[in-house]
Amino acid sequence: MRDGTPAETVNFLTKGQQLRKVKRSGKVYLRTFLFDTELLRIGYRDRICTTNKINLYLKSHKIGSKKFSHCASGSPNYIIRLQDIQEVREGFNSEVFTKCQKGGQGANGADESQCFSIVIGSKYKTIDLIAPDKQKRDQWVQGIRGLMRKMQQASPAELHQLWLQALFMKADKNNDKELSLAEICELLNDVNIRIDKSNAKKLFEQSNTDTSNRTRRGEETLNQEEFLHFYKLITNREELKAIYDRYNKNGDEFLDVNELTSFLVNEQKMNVTMEQVIHYIREFEPCPELGEDGKLGLDGFHLFLTKNDNMLIKNQAHEQEVYHDMTRPLSNYFIAASHNTYLTGDQLASRSSVEMYIKALRQGCRCVELDCWDGPNGEPIVYHGYTATTKILFEDIIKAIKMSAFETSKYPVILSIENHCSVEQQKRMAYHMTSILEDMLYATPYPRDMAQLPSPESLVGKILVKGKKLPETVEKDDDGEVTDEDEASQIDDPSVKEKMAEKKSSKKLKLAKELSDLVVICQSVHFKSFEDAREKGNCKQMSSFTEDAALELCVTKPKKYLRHNRCQLSRIYPSGLRVDSTNYNPIPMWACGCQIVALNYQTNDTPMQMNSAKFQDNGMTGYLLKPSFMLRESPFMAGEPRDCQPINLTITVISGSQLPKKKSDSADIIDPYVKVQVYGLQVDSTSQNTTIVKNNGFNPQWNCKLSFHLNVPEMALIRFIVFDEDQFSNNEKVGQYTLPCTSLLPGYRTVPLTEKDGSTIYGSSLFVHVDITYLNRIE
């Protein structure tokens, strides 16, 4: 692999370095950290470590750092996988360091130049560390970032080799760098391979080139190179070879440039030049001499079909494209939005965290929520009012938003403010936003007679404030009163209702002029009726609806709702009954043109997976142009799809590779089947299943053709779910992947699988063939 880390830095870090680890409580512990540059992992232990390498005994697919249950002498107590690291931050740039600094603890007296934080996992947990001095801190930061680049730049072959090395070390429990047949059979069971022991022994003997290597009991063993050959024999994929043979017209051992071109054009529906085909061959052929000669062998073809660029979805992470027209009014777009963004868990007692804003913004979210209340020392705080959720400073959130707002998308961010503060602390909120966000803050007064909202393109790099606006009749320097709309009133919890009853004395809220002036084009108003909004409202005004209220309008007045959403923004938020932070189905709201459908980003349930899939499109900008039938002067309902192009979609689920074992019984080989589900308009929503393959989670073969007719593919999401069939209990979900129908690529494609929390299950995938037939457009 290409490595951007200086050799002396890597050598220094592999020997181990004592760092101080800061806990959330502010307590500091001395730990020894060290690198494993071969397996791209970081280990740390609670005593000085003299080993130069990490002895890996980590169970596959664990997130973040997990404690070993069977540590060998000299091995680390904890491990951090490089693929779980989101970023490395220098200085006091985490909640833990900020809390220590403001609490007067000063990170145990450390200078900011000594401090850094490793951000890991889907919850953006931080490991906060203090190095002995700035030079050693910089070595760690540069070293980790260098290893992250190393993984990002790794070829598919190198990543596969890395995974196999990890398998070998996991199975090598006595750390003698050899595996017996018994150890290999145990390993095969761990990765979902069921094979007769006599067949395993035959392949073992074929791979054993040095029979002198034996255990103390005299058993023959395989070294790492021999194990890699054994693994290749046992994982031969006949379905890929069949495709390869079909295009290997010369009958030799290689595809030439013309044969690979034929495959790419006829099967993958790609427009490629000869130069591009030659580039593919040189990139994926393991033998450099053959690659230079324009020849691609079966191994290279295998790597090509399973590479990132051959995934099912368009616009992969390294090739994102913004292809929607971004010059239309804001009301013409679906906008990725988060509800109670600060929460890490449930709505009643979970922890609030600044990191959740960073996470949401980096996922492409463009509308985040802040519930603001009076805090101590004159500083406003954010938490879920009347509940036991923890409190964080408004100022810290604004700083985090400034840092992360435009890392993933350059298009505008909306701060949805639910204001419960006194006038004085509202002025403090306005001060923090203006002083911290500076030119990012969009506070320019918009013309009174504006007929439509500005476009995302005209607001690039801008942060908008959504909140209450004082009437124009209020004098220039005066504060005023506005209606107080408290989302907490929807929470179905006795203690919350009791606290609200005690504290609620008026439905009016005093509003500071300074805060009101920051609200320009997202002015919150109470929704009375569509007729009232059309007669008295304007495009700068927007209303918020509970999911229940929105769904009722979707059912009873869908055309009026759709017409309303052509001009004004609508924000939808979860019912107060969802105290566990589950999510509602966003599709009915999208079907009526609702733009800001806010979900609980901390809960990666099916609705959130649908949301994430939808907003993968258009380069993860967080803005998606609505289908044309929603934007007409007299818009058509999605249930009456005119100006749409229906499709016939055929997905052949061919095979699976390295499917994960079910969590409830890791000793059992799974019996997998695949459900392909369409989420969309009611007329399009359906699902079909493959057959069940018994006792094979490693390379199951289905070859099942599933066909779907979609009337409005622009509104459809396609979801692949892998289940383990169980006759005696509920079938367990072991992996899934969801994507927008409009991003499907035709041909032979690899479908990556993810965990419930959205993290990728390394090495696990489905292999499918996709055929899309476009039908006559409905005018």
TrEMBL record:
Which compartment or compartments is the protein found in? Cytoplasm
Main localization of the protein described in the UniProt heading: cytoplasm
Q: Where is the C2 domain?
A: 630-755
Q: Which residues form the PH domain?
A: 21-149
Q: Which residues form the EF-hand domain?
A: 159-194, 235-270
Catalytic reaction equation(s): a 1,2-diacyl-sn-glycero-3-phospho-(1D-myo-inositol-4,5-bisphosphate) + H2O = 1D-myo-inositol 1,4,5-trisphosphate + a 1,2-diacyl-sn-glycerol + H(+)
Q: Where does the record place the PI-PLC Y-box domain?
A: 515-630
Q: Which InterPro entries did the record assign? A: C2_dom, C2_domain_sf, EF-hand-dom_pair, EF_Hand_1_Ca_BS, EF_hand_dom, PH-like_dom_sf, PH_domain, PI-PLC_fam
Report keywords, A-Z: Calcium, Cytoplasm, Hydrolase, Lipid degradation, Lipid metabolism, Transducer
User: What residue spans carry the region label Disordered?
Assistant: 474-500
Show the Pfam families listed in the entry: C2, EF-hand_like, PI-PLC-X, PI-PLC-Y
- Give me the Gene Ontology terms describing cellular component: cytoplasm
For this UniProt entry, the molecular function terms from Gene Ontology, in alphabetical order, are:
calcium ion binding; phosphatidylinositol-4,5-bisphosphate phospholipase C activity
Return the PROSITE patterns for the record: C2, EF_HAND_1, EF_HAND_2, PH_DOMAIN, PIPLC_X_DOMAIN, PIPLC_Y_DOMAIN
Q: Where is the composition biased (Acidic residues)?
A: 475-490
Which EC numbers does the record give? 3.1.4.11
Q: Which residues form the signal peptide?
A: none
GO terms for biological process, alphabetical: intracellular signal transduction; lipid catabolic process
Required cofactor(s): Ca(2+)
Under which name does UniProt file this protein?
Phosphoinositide phospholipase C
What is the source species?
A: Dimorphilus gyrociliatus
